[in-house]
Amino acid sequence: MAEAGDGGWPEPVVRVQALSESGAATIPDRYVRPETERPSSAATASEANGGVINIPVVDLSSSPGTAATAVAEACREWGFFQAVNHGVPPALLRRARGVWRGFFHQPMEVKQRYANSPATYEGYGSRLGVDKGALLDWGDYYFLHVRPPHLLSPDKWPHLPPDLRETTMKYSEEVKSLCERLMTAMAVGLGVEEERLQEAFGGSEGAGVCVRVNYYPRCPQPDLTLGLSSHSDPGGMTVLLVDDRVKGLQVRHAGAWVTVDPVPDAFIINVGDQIQVVTNALYRSVEHRVVVNAADERLSIAAFYNPRSDLPVAPLPELVSPERPPLYSPMTFDDYRLYIRRNGPRGKSQVDRLAVAATKPTNHQ
User: Tell me, what is one Gene Ontology molecular-function annotation carried by this entry (predicted)?
Assistant: First the structure.
């Protein structure tokens, strides 16, 4: 079974794909979730009022005012929506999925050249948290920095398949442009100046972009594990391109898990913790997770749009009032994500912890 050198991890890293391809009928104990966290343990919302429950769908080709209203409503009520008619060519979406599926189908020795470490996560990985002996998720991934330019490391970008680099860069630039449009729509929906959210992130040149490609191999016991534990995204906004053949994303809504039914060629957009902070929780990040299955592998591409990492992020003054005081103290994204790197996905505990700290009375002895 393929293992990576520790590379700063607390113990040798076992590739989930290698476990899947070993033919074992059971999964190691490290991947077995407590009963309360297993896919079948919580209520799952599937139908209501005779129809299937799904996250909202927003047509970005509608008039700017109509689109902004729909985006704002989805961000307030769900924290998630599917964006259709978003302007990114469907052919590019297919190419992006194809090159990354091709990478994960390369021989293990090829992939191991890009093994990552907790220092940046950039490269080929199989775990997030650095706690020794922690429970693990049933998934491998590849993480890349795209912007700002000084963080882009060409040696971390795979050479195989041959068109992976060019396709991923083109895809990332298209998604960055989409994020800038969505930041404008979100701001308009809040009733603030249309550039205010972008300014809070350091402007279009200051904002960060990174990509995480998730690969969830077939699992012999999918009811016992998760592909990705329940979490809210620590960054600003996530643009997710899901597998075009296999479902797996679940979003927590009204106390139940909703399995997302993807619209073809749509992006799934979700609010991250940083937008929750900037909007003083008018827009809220939402817990989500990934389930796996025994019959099929699954691949998704998540692009994260984040504030400039050294810029203190705090609620916009326009969204603060005596009736709605600031819920969060200023904190840089660099400081914020250190918590995630130490602990891995932990529901919404990280952003909730910030709110508690900001509202706790100060003792001036």
Answer: oxidoreductase activity
**Contact 93/301 with Cβ under 8 angstroms?**
no
The 10s digit of each residue's pLDDT in 53-89 is: 789 999 999 898 999 999 999 999 999 999 999 999 9
pLDDT digits (tens, 9 = 90+) for 129-164: 778 888 999 999 999 999 998 888 999 999 999 999
Would you say 302 and 211 are in contact if contact means Cβ atoms under 8 Å apart? yes
Q: Are strands 208-216 and 140-147 parallel, antiparallel or unpaired?
A: antiparallel
- Token digits for 255? 């106390």
For the record, the structure tokens of 99 come out as 């090159």
pLDDT digits (tens, 9 = 90+) for 157-203: 999 999 999 999 999 999 999 999 999 999 999 999 999 999 999 99
Question: Domain locations in the chain?
Answer: 16-354
pTM recorded for the entire structure: 0.91
Q: Whole-angstrom Cα distance, residue 240 to residue 213?
A: 10
Roughly what angle, to the nearest 10 degrees, separates helices 64-77 and 164-190?
Answer: 90
CB 231 within 8 A of CB 307: no
Quickly name the fold that domain 16-354 has. Answer: Jelly Rolls (2.60.120)
- Beta carbons within 10 angstroms of residue 314's beta carbon: 18
Which residues fall within 8 angstroms of residue 118, CB to CB, at 6 or more apart? Answer: 8, 9, 130, 341
Residues 134 and 199: beta-carbon distance below 8 Å: no
> What residue type is assigned to position 266 of the chain?
A
